[in-house]
Design brief:
heterodimer; A: 2 domains; 5 strands; B: alpha+beta; 4-stranded antiparallel β-sheet; 12 helices; globular
């Protein structure tokens, strides 16, 4: 059966976007292969690793567990929308300064997740950060530098 | 994944018509955190995915002290634990909603989906059973309401007929002296599948247990309602000995398998420990409510 594509109108990083997607395609596949936003990464493709985390209507979700056609009318923010024309977001800067990444595959997901946390809770405890980031896996850093980076970003954003 | 139709009905009737048309070649989509993975893995060869998230009844979340709680089948976990009134009135359901997956999963996954996925390890189901929850189901032949403990019939299988849809879950309003708890054992602190879990509730009156319910996860082909464990406590004081006796009944009822997560012996042991601990916490919570 030939695939019938569905026309989807959505908002990505504040910009109106239209795309054609097959219903079977995940939001992650659409972002990477159709919209050409390759910042979101495919790690496990089953909701364990969080490398594909995006913000959808104010909640972080694994974009591999969302159908692209579900993005109709949604407001989506990806890692590409975090930096501004003025430069890196304080969370990105903190990840660099604290060496919170090595291979970098998990980093877009960690940035999107951390940003959502700090927007909701500007001064989270270390335990809260670790629990919030439980849905993001990193096999390089051992997490400590990531947690320290998020705490540093919280401090910077509060000042 | 093969090519599929994606359909977005806005009424229950429309969804029922679609299910009648596609029969077993369609599944209802809520959060997709199980369904999309299973479709990708080839468990189903579907012709259609019917998105339930645009149907008002599947999105309802209402609570009152008089009428209790109604959770639409597609309501994500975060909306449930984000409501302070619901969180304090339904502590066992709250335990489940806050430990299913991580934050990303809780942003999408629904308790209705957890029930329809019918995994033996489903974290929400023992808590729903403990809270006396009832599933509201609609099909071509009308509406029926079924206690949650009668929904799962095997791993990934339910007692819903082809063409029926879970619309919502109703949970009675807890009375004064009610307490509930869901706990599970996993080798890490979060984001894992239960090796075993226990969802329990107690209703205290004048220092004695008037009613109690015990349900287990991951130790049988379905989430397991252990009716005799709860009943053993009725009319008794919530003493260590009585709670231990109920925990022993839970252990006896469990029929787990040995797999990568744990052995039969370990899982049976966990049933006893988790049921005992959960009952103690439920009693503490019930007393706080007094």
């Amino acid at each position: 059966m030939p695939a019938t594509k569905v026309h989807v109108t959505t908002t990505i990083n504040g910009e109106p976007v239209e795309f054609l997607a097959e219903p079977r395609q995940s939001l992650l596949e659409v972002l990477r292969d159709v919209v050409q936003l390759t910042g979101s990464k495919e790690g496990c493709n089953d909701g364990n690793c969080g490398a594909c985390t995006v913000n959808m209507d104010g909640r972080i979700v694994d974009s591999c567990l969302v159908l692209g056609v579900e993005a109709e009318g949604a407001d989506i923010q990806t890692v590409e929308g975090i930096a501004s024309a003025d430069g890196l977001h304080p969370i990105q800067q903190a990840f660099l300064e604290n060496a919170a990444l090595q291979c970098g595959i998990c980093t877009p997901g960690f940035l999107v997740s951390s940003k959502a946390l700090l927007e909701k809770e500007p001064n989270p405890s270390e335990e809260r950060i670790r629990m919030w980031l439980a849905g993001n896996l990193c096999r390089c850093t051992g997490y400590d530098k990531i947690v320290k980076a998020v705490m540093a970003a919280a401090k910077e954003m509060a000042s | 994944m093969n090519s599929i139709d994606y359909i977005r009905p806005t009424t229950v009737d429309e969804a029922v018509s679609l299910l009648a048309k596609y029969k077993e070649k369609a599944r209802v989509l809520a959060g997709g955190t199980d369904l999309i993975v299973q479709m990708r893995g080839g468990r189903y060869q579907l012709d259609a995915v019917i998105d339930g998230k645009h149907i008002e009844e599947l999105n309802q979340l209402t609570y009152s002290k008089e009428n209790g709680l109604v959770i639409g089948a597609a309501v994500p976990c975060h909306k449930i634990y984000g409501d302070e009134n619901i969180a304090s009135a339904y502590p066992g359901i709250m335990d489940s909603a806050t430990l299913i997956g991580g934050i990303q999963i809780q942003g999408r996954a629904s308790l209705g989906g957890n029930l329809m996925n019918a995994a033996p390890s489903a974290d929400a189901i023992p808590a729903l059973i403990a809270h006396n929850a009832v599933a509201n189901i609609v099909g071509a032949n009308g509406t029926r309401s079924v206690p949650v403990e009668d929904i799962c019939s095997g791993p990934g299988r339910t007692t819903l007929d082809t063409g029926e849809i879970l619309v919502s879950i109703s949970v009675p309003a807890p009375s004064k002296g009610f307490g509930a708890r869901y706990i599970r054992f996993i080798p890490r602190n979060e984001m894992d599948i239960a090796v075993a879990g226990a969802g329990v509730s107690v209703q205290l009156k004048n220092g004695k247990i008037e009613a109690a319910r015990v349900a287990l996860s991951s130790v049988a082909p379905t989430p397991l309602f252990v009716e005799n464990a709860g009943n053993s406590l009725v009319g008794k004081e919530p003493s260590d000995e009585n709670i231990q006796a109920a925990a022993n009944l839970a252990k006896e009822a469990a029929t787990p398998i040995t797999d990568m997560r744990g052995t039969v012996e370990f899982r049976k042991h966990l049933c006893e420990v988790l049921t005992r601990r959960a009952l103690h916490t439920a009693v503490e919570r019930a007393r706080e409510e007094n």
